[in-house]
Amino acid sequence: MANIKTKDVIKGTIKTLDRAAIATDRVKHAYVATKDKAEKIVHTEETSGGEYASNKASSGISTTTRQGIRTFDKVGRESTKTTIENVKKSAEFTKEKVSQAKQGVENFKTKRAEESLKKQMGKATNKAANRATNQAIRTAKEVDKSVKQSVTSAGNKTIKRGLKAPAKTSRRYLKTAEKTSKTAIKTTEHTAKVAKNTAKTSAKVAQKAAQATKKAAQATAKGIKVAVKATIQTVKAIIASTKALIAAIIAGGWIAVVVIVICVLLGAAVSLFGGGTENSGYIPVSQEVEAYTPTITKYAKQYGIPEYVELIKAVMMQESGGRGNDPMQAAEGSFNTRYPHTPNGIQDPDYSIQCGVQKLKAALNSAEVKNPVDMENIKLALQGYNFGNGYISWARSKYGGYSYANAVEFSTNQAQRLGWKSYGDTQYVSHVLRYYPYGRAFSSGSNQAIIEVALSQLGNDGGQPYWSWYGFDSRVEWCACFVSWCADQSGYIEQGIIPKYALCSDGANWFKKNNQWQDRNATPSTGAIIFFDWGGDGIIDHTGLVEKCENGIVYTVEGNSGDACRQRQYAVGNKLIYGYGIPAY
């Protein structure tokens, strides 16, 4: 029995327990015991690291604790093994999905894009698959490394702590392994998602390429149709001109020789008529009109104008397109003695043609037309056919001949005199000549027609006729509306020669798109569309028409110039000029 330590509380009196001495003695015994155990542990570690668990058990670890550690260790190892297997399976699954995506995309490709898209898809999908596989392998290695580190770390902590917290260490080990496994799974899922998105992107690329190929094919087909249409028009133009030449030759006279010589010099009919293209100004007559060719030829011979068969057909085309019982619209003329003098009053197409031929002959004689290519006098005769021969004598005596401006003046005067809203067709000449084979080739500059229209509007203030014609309910900046109106009055919008535009930039962009553009330093021709940039900032502010260009000066006719139609002039290359649109007159 240990000696009980005492001390005198008060010297010479009652003795009490010496607690400090007892505590010191206990610490001494604990130190000795701890030292003995530590020496045993050190001896065991130096003997064999692999035998640590069994030696530790012999040093005092209970059977329950040892079984718990082994159980946790087994669970950890199985979890690690399962995680690695899952990662591998995920990698294989990802690879399989990428392969399926690749196959789906390849099936999506169109035949036209197959070669180019195959190369792109192969690279994209292979790269995605390799990336997914490599990522999965790296993830598996990282998982294995992390698990090993976790096991080692857990074991070291167990060694250091001894018996204090083996269960707590094992729980941490399991949490670490579980966290690592979840991270690996998330990484694999992310990799699969990336691969899937890559496949989708590749599919979109394939789809866009296929659509582009389809559009290109459609454009090519459309181009072929346009080319075929142009070729047909060219052939029709050649046929029409040949018929006119034959008629002229049959009719006799020096004009036949002149026309033939001109055809030879200009390189045949295609050159004469602008190739029969859409913008050439010539439009073949309809099949209905062509069907009346024998009847027209018969009456043209009967009334002494066999060389004007093509001109008669052009008139019929404008009057009716060859439809109805009065195809020449001759009921209101003086040569109709059988039917009422009202629109479409004649009920016999043959009689309509007979009256119409006589009416056109009278106009040709009054205008002193010399031959089928005497275009200035033919214009006068045609406007007389529409207005009546009174116009021919009036225009000749007052202006020396036809112009669009005097046609507008005559129409306005007649409408006011008769109390009518309008009188005749002020655009009748351009309307008929688009169907006449020689209308463009021998006209003295069809670009002059739009200038004549513009000049007839000088002094008009406010622009109401132009912006209201365009479709606006109230006043707008109307310079572009004015140019469009003049083009429409000349028949150029209908023919596709000039666009209808209310925004200046739209007009400029149309000409640029059609490669019909010149910069400010060019010398423009009559009828060109001029565009202005007042601020020099590249923004188009104004537009008008080029009346002429002489001695380095550009003369223009502009609408909305001080809110009126006015003539202006600028030096060639003036910094205010943005550029010119060049119509294919």
Structural write-up:
- The chain has 4 domains: 6-57; 61-206; 285-444, Lysozyme (Orthogonal Bundle), CATH 1.10.530; 454-581, endopeptidase fold (from Nostoc punctiforme) (Alpha-Beta Complex), CATH 3.90.1720.
- Helix content is 61%, strand content 7%.
- The protein has 19 helices and 8 strands.
- Strands 3-8-4-5-6-7 form a 6-stranded antiparallel sheet. Strands 1-2 form a two-stranded antiparallel ribbon.
- The longest helix has 86 residues, at 166-251.
- It is elongated and about 155 Å long.
Keywords:
585 residues; alpha+beta; Lysozyme; 4 domains; six-stranded antiparallel β-sheet; two-stranded antiparallel sheet; 7% strand
How many β-strand runs? 8
Number of domains: 4
Evaluate the radius of gyration.
51 Å
Structural class: alpha+beta
Low-confidence stretches: 7-16, 41-62, 154-167, 263-280
Our measurement of the CA-to-CA distance between the termini, rounded to an integer number of angstroms, reads 135 Å
Portion of residues in helices? Answer: 55-70%
Q: Which CATH class of the largest domain is shown?
A: Mainly Alpha
Residue-averaged pLDDT:
74
Tally the helices: 19
The CATH architecture classification of the largest domain is Orthogonal Bundle
